[in-house]
Amino acid sequence: MFSSLRWLILLCVLFGAADSQAYLTVGEWQPLFKGVDHATGETDEPRLQKVNAIRVDLQDPDIQLITTPGNGALPGDTTRQTASSYIAQTDVQVAINGQYIDLATSYPYGDLFGLAMHEGQTVSIAQDLHALIGVNPGTLLVTQDNVARIEQTYPSTDLTGVWTAVESWAYLLVDGVNTGDPRFIPGNIEPRSAVGLSQDGRYMILMTIDGRQSRYSLGATSFEESEWLTRFGAYNGINLDGGGSTHLWVSEHEGETYAVNRPTENRPVSNHLGIYAAPLIPEPTTSALALAALCLVMSRRRIVAR
């Protein structure tokens, strides 16, 4: 028979071993394109989560933002597309799924909830989504010269100068404060997509958390999603349409197009946020530096000889 003290010691050892197995990692940024970096995160507490983040330097002169264009005379606001189809059409380097849609609209068309703007043109008008469906929305607003902010928009909001807009809910990171829902309830632990901005507005963070995949990644609450945005440098951020819509794709210049995350399905969505970026400037090799130095020496010799 174990004494009470021995039981206490055994429990402490067991809980200590369990704690030592928990982990959380946030990787360093690795360059993908000029002004665009990629990093990953991972944890097993409170459940398995695999996270991918793209950081976009909005001060890089070659960075341009684009969304899905409007349908014109066709039904709905936009036409649904997979990420690979959207990239093939637009030639962007990065694409992430955007905002929620009214599922009552017949496929392949989609009506977007809230404000969407494409190259200065309104694709979906601003609505009071809090009054309409009781959500806490936020809108990414970006000018043509990439000055970005996130705020709640209404039909009366002045959109002068806005070039790109994507609205979604929840507005889960507000001036550094996590306003996500922490409850472990059905519908709150899901694959997640998000967009955030750094405090100074220089960096835009595109992020996915995979889910619904046993032994790989099980999803996150919106509260956990907000925590991950903060870890990757965001100060404000909104949750985008998630679940089976969660995907983050990259297209290399004259190279491979692939999903950075592990989507649960190849779902066509009604709005994408796309990023144009220039290729990385290759660093000079040792031989190239040596050749440049030799050319400099030879040119100086010719000058002296004259």
Give the helix/strand class.
Answer: alpha+beta
Order of helices and strands: HEEEEEEHEEEEEHEEEEEEEHEEEEH
Averaging pLDDT over every residue, what do you get? Answer: 91
What's the count of strands? 22
Dominant shape: globular
Low-confidence stretches: 8-15
Helix content: 10-25%
Q: Determine the N-to-C terminus distance.
A: 101 Å
How would you characterize the largest beta sheet?
Answer: 9 strands, antiparallel
Number of domains: 1
Number of discrete helical segments = 5
**Estimated radius of gyration:** 24 Å
Q: What percentage of the residues does DSSP assign to strands (E)?
A: 25-35%
Write the layout of secondary structure elements.
Layout: H1 4-21, E1 24-26, E2 30-33, E3 36-43, E4 49-57, E5 64-67, E6 78-79, H2 83-90, E7 94-97, E8 101-102, E9 109-112, E10 116-118, E11 121-124, H3 129-133, E12 137-143, E13 148-151, E14 162-169, E15 171-174, E16 177-178, E17 192-197, E18 203-209, H4 222-231, E19 236-240, E20 248-251, E21 257-259, E22 272-276, H5 286-305
Antiparallel strand pairs: 1-3, 2-3, 3-4, 4-18, 5-22, 6-9, 7-20, 7-22, 8-9, 10-11, 10-14, 12-13, 12-14, 15-16, 15-19, 17-18, 17-19, 20-21
Structure explained in plain terms:
The chain is α+β, with helices and mostly antiparallel strands and 306 residues long. It has one domain (24-305). It has 5 helices and 22 strands. Strands 1, 2, 3, 4, 15, 16, 17, 18 and 19 form a 9-stranded antiparallel β-sheet that branches. The longest helix is centred in the last third of the chain and has 20 residues, at 286-305. The protein is globular. The N and C termini lie far apart (101 Å). The relative contact order is 0.19.
